[in-house]
Amino acid sequence: MEHRHAPIRPVRALAIAALALVLSACGGGAKTVENPVTTPGGPPTYSGPAPATADVQAFKINVWDNLKASNRCGQCHVGGGQAPQFVRLDDVNLAYSAANPIVNLTSPRDSRMVQKVAGGHNCWLASNDACADILTQWISAWAGATAGGVTGVVLKAPPIFDPGTSKGFPTSPALFGTTVHPMLERYCSRCHVSTAAASQSPFFASSDLDEAYAAAKVKINLDQPALSRLVVRLRSEFHNCWSDCASNANEMEAAIVAFANQVPATQVDPSLVFSKALRLPDGIVASGGNRYSGNQVALWEFKTGRGTIAYDTSGVEPALNLNLSGDVQWVGGWGINVRSGKAQGSTSASRKLHDLIKATGEYTIEAWVAPGNVAQEDSRIVSYSGGTTTRNFMLGQTLYSYDFYNRSSSTNQNGDPKLTTAAADEDLQATLQHVVATFDPVRGRRIYVNGEYTGDADPSSGGTISDWDDTFAFVLGNEVSGDRQFQGVFRLVAVYNRALTEPQIQTNFQAGVGEKFYLLFSVSHLVGVPESYILFEVSQFDSYSYLFEQPTFISLDPTAKPGSIPIAGMRIGVNGEEAAVGQAYRTLDTTITDSQYGPLGQPLANIGTVIALEKGPEGDEFFLTFDVLGTHRNVRLDPVPLAPGPPPDVQRAPDVGLRVFDELNATMSELTGIPTTAPGVASTYDTIKQSLPTIETIDTFVSAHPVAVAQLAIQYCNALVENPTARAQYFPGFDFAATPATAFAPAGRDIVLDALIGRMLRTNVPTEPSATGVRGDLDLLITRLSNCSGSCAADRTETVVKATCAALLGSAATLVH
Amino acid sequence: MQRTWSTGRRQTWSRRLAVAALGLLGVLQGGLAFADARSQAKRMHDRLAGVPPTEAVLTAMASDIAAGRPTDAAQRAMQHRAFYDVTLKNFAMPWTNRDQTVFAPLNDYVATVIGVVRDDVGFDRILYDDILYAGRSGSGIPALSASSNEHFAALERQGVNLRDELVRTTQSAAYGVPAEATAGVITSRAAAQAFFVAGTNRAMLRFTLMNHLCTDLEQVQDPTRPPDRIRQDVSRSPGGDSRVFLNNCIACHSGMDPLAQAFAYYDYDETAGRMIYTAGVVRPKYFNNEDTFPAGYSTPDDAWDNYWRKGRNSLLGWDGSLPGKGTGAKSLGRELAGSDKFASCQVQKVFRNVCFRAPSDAQDRARVDAMTASFKASGFKLKQVFAEAATYCMGD
Question: Using one digit for the tens of pLDDT, what is the confidence trace for B177-195?
Fold first, then answer.
């Protein structure tokens, strides 16, 4: 960036135990070439002077023994070889002296030795980062820092530059589809499609344009096409060129240039009040280092980011590296996403777990994992097994529960009975979680989620693990047989040969996972306080976003005082524009004051927020904007949303509808005079009410409705006729004791019909059924039912009245209105 | 119960009734064009009370209508007890449970709605007032209790006339809830049992929006609102994919969580069967799964903010005379009840209940708008809305 300059200034320490080793340039180391053997090769027996001090002894055990091999630093940095001779074989005390200037025991990661290897100097693995991590572990062990000594961070002034114009990816893949995609599809589709025999993610050569575009974005640099991974991979790394790498790279670059040239650059709105800009690499690495790693025998941090090997960077030999197979993708910010596949180590390398754990009889499995869903059952998260029914241990998922199998003298060869977290507790969630499973012979198995013991007791006693099998393989995300798929993201996995204590587990939970940076957004030009910044802790949250948290106002000038600076409406800008979603600090409204400003600055908020990733951590450029900062104001007018237009007209539903359940009950009660609480009626209603209409809309009429209506009508009419008082009032003068022939003689018949029609129908209402017509139908019904061929039962007359009553009461005259 | 008819015979009659019912439809639909005052009065009574009128009432209502006083006719219909026991009860019952079923026992939420309508209390008060309706103490009815619904269940079981037997009281007096902690039906025992139980109390907001603003969360999604108040229990990377959060979760939670904070002191004790209110102490449920996203919002109190006053949800028509923020359920209830959407929602619900359809065309919508204006101008008297809707839909 041409606006950029990078002053390196003395700075203020954030923590008391600060480190301040500023590395000189590492110089050009030899190009990384993977050496053939990954275990220390043939160490000669040491016969020199004994270590003079305990520190020399610690150096020897932890560093010297690991590096002296001829396929590691021992190839050159030995007596008579290249300086510094920190692995000289003749005298470990002299090697110790040579090593001291190139290590930083306070912050092992900042050791020059580590930096050199990280920069590509003779790493003995294919991944420089993995070598650096392993070396860091060894130096940390030497320093005795494994118990979690607090390391500090020194804030250095970042490069100062304005938010530049920047090109963002268009939403539509159309432009990509006409420029870059055809080349990818033509030259890269043998591997970089999900359907290829040797499928290799990312799938930017997919024939599905949307899928290809999503995968290709992080490989394309629109601002500097030559720096696109798609180009660099060909030009400098000679990755599967289709003819001549230089011309292939030029061809690819030309395609990306053609793409980029058609994308307009985004400029920062000049009306905004904005800070200086930063990219993630401009930040200061927050060297957390607070993890407890004592007795750690295997560690996977998934930092490599490409390839098919996840390196064990515990530093404990032999390295249990895992081969990624199937659909397993690297996750930004360190991690792997297992979709349909697994990450498995060899049985020989896995044997170290058997050997080291069996020696202590206890162990811990620690994982930062984000289960992909809470629907998967009997799936393997971490397993050390020989198949679906035989194993040494396994951490798995069943819906909302973690399962922990351990083979011991108290369980079978599959580790059953398992320990599982209570389903009702829903300890497992489909989000990033820190899960730890411990076993020791006394307390047995325990599971901790996010630093807390789940409280689930081991169903079996602890027992011993003397029956463990050393022929099993360690695997993540599946069973070794490949038929117990777990879908989810792994951010870190570690195995210890001790059961971690609760404080140790909490330490590791608090340490978090992934790489964090301190970003210092300069605001000196806005507030007039020298070297003043808004400090953010930023990390790549997952493949699609960044986490911004703990905003703090701070000046790197220890003599500076803020005075009184109002600050409000802070927003995060990405690539020239304010992020559309995730602006948690826009509600910020406070004042930076001398009284609240301390040695660590003034915290502005205690919440964090996620901001969408656009180009990737190397390409995204961040800045801050403010509605109010000091004397600067940016008045925003909230846009007035447009009221939606009226919905389209629809045809009106029919005017008539159904009387619903309660209405029918009340109506029948009203028309018969029988209370709804009458025995028989109430119980029948309770039984059938859900079969009655529940919605008035006539379209919902189904055949079950009249059946239920009839049942209820019969009950009401039955209650009416069975009740001497009620029926006498309802049908005054009617002789229920007479035979039908007598009772329904014209006079009696009229009593019944007059009563029913008079009570149940409203006359002179054109929308009601015709009273005359209804009367005629009921009359016919009475006649038909009265005919019992001279052998009428004693209650026949009552039955006929009930039937006539129910015929009208249960008719559409009641049901429909 | 002695069965009078055989099963087979009953089925025969059922079929006949079904045929009769369908035949009558044609009669009814064909006759609509010729509806007269008696037909209009009959329909009005059927729709409002759910039962047919007596001849005397029908005649009186027809006279009202013929004289150009249809609202009087409607008021006459609403004097029937079934308007309260049946129509209003089933109108409100689905609001009081998560399943939104009408098949639930009478409860204090429903009784309060019935009482408020009967007494022409401003209907907006159901979301913030210290108000409660319960049965008059009488034989066989268990006493009103903060820890049992039996009082109300018994009222229904015994067929008590709710029009006459409901009496007004206060939640603070009847349940011992501090008066400032009452918020109408929101703090009723039934609502607490349904929406404060377990969970995170977001359900209370969601169901209140659904029931009283006719708006579910999908309709108020707005990802542009600041997410600073989204609690720690919401994963920012569900299943390891933060796009899900940034495209979906955030759109509801950014507005919902700062509103649901108003309920931070409320809970429901399933064992005791009663609502819990702990003044000044945030309920533990607000810290469920706090490790899911530790950088999320940790609830310190019951202060709420309405982020939906800006952005697209400003179209809900918030009351400009209110501050848009506050503490506790009462002021939140007032905020919700003060919105245009609250008023229009009540009218739409009544319209649908009486007219058997949602507003379907410009004429219907204009009528609903007019009824909404009238509803607000009249001090939120819901009976008037029923009357106006019944008049509009009584037929030509």
Answer: 999 999 999 999 999 999 9
